[in-house]
Amino acid sequence: MENTKPIIVGISIGDLNGIGGEVVLKTFEDERSLELCTPVIFASAKTMGFLKTHFNSTIHFNSINNLDHIKEGKVNVYNCWREPVSINFGQEDVTIGTYAVKSLECATKALKDNYIDVLVTAPINKHNIQSDRFNFPGHTDYLAQQLKGESLMFMVANDLRVGLLTDHVPLKDIAQHITPELIKKKIAIVHDSLKKDFAINKPKIAVLGINPHTGDNGVIGNEDDTIMRPTLKQIKESGTLVFGPYAADSFFGNDNYKNFDAIIAVYHDQGLIPFKTLSFGQGVNFTGGLNRIRTSPDHGTAYEIAGKGLADAGSFKEALYTAIKIFRNRSDYEVFSSNPLKKIYKKT
User: Fold this and answer.
1) Most buried of 109, 179, 268, 306, CB within 10 angstroms?
2) pLDDT in tens, 188-228
3) How far is the C-alpha of 31 from the C-alpha of 104, rounded, in Å?
4) What is this structure's pTM?
């Protein structure tokens, strides 16, 4: 089933002193993107006007104060604030952090209220967004609170998909977080997402080990033998195609990852270092498991090149395309699963 209706994509502008504004402008300077979606940037017309001038952009914005006035085929800017913002590229600034939060909150509310179909988030600085009112390690944790479902950090790039058992957890605390309940929950989210969001009927999932060499039969820790293996055995017996645990040090180097639809890493760097090595510049951070769709590029604010016109918009574009593709896959899944006995025949 082909769905050609333009999807309304909300964009939170992220840290204005970073490269977020630049990659957003570069993405929508290509007018072909407007054939796929109708973008709504959550910032202000004044702020986007400054960025347009600074980067010599040719974009024409449709400034709106009411989300009922979104125009198809235009780059819409919803005014989350009206006052001028002092942008100093490359500098960490708490005030700029508050505007990143305003943009995210406005965009999330629009997502919840069905004014936008999906959300693509430009990079934030996790330090300067912190306040008494906003105390989250990042986008994923905030959206997990605001939206329904169980969130999962899911890094995707073409056929490479890496999910995490734990995401922003200090390394010293990882082992105590790994429980049979957590493993079962995260694998269920990945399995469900692969079917609904990526249209894979019978997903094959690999799980990496907790310890080096998966513990070497207890010589380097026993968590893989006492927690991981028994849990994976139970999950596999229930019908899910899950395999492992695999020693993480060789799993990607010997191309074993190509045999699976998704890989689940135990902790952040175990999964993201190989993922970014294999896909940097084209990878996408997808928040799986939630009732609404959010993606982001796989890079940060890149202060060192901010404002210089050097930023590569490749990952942001991929985040945009991935959000659109997942939305369509999820819509098709809902149609077909709600009519499991209905068969569609091609007319001859």
Assistant:
1) 306
2) 999 999 999 999 999 999 999 998 898 778 878 888 999 99
3) 25
4) 0.90
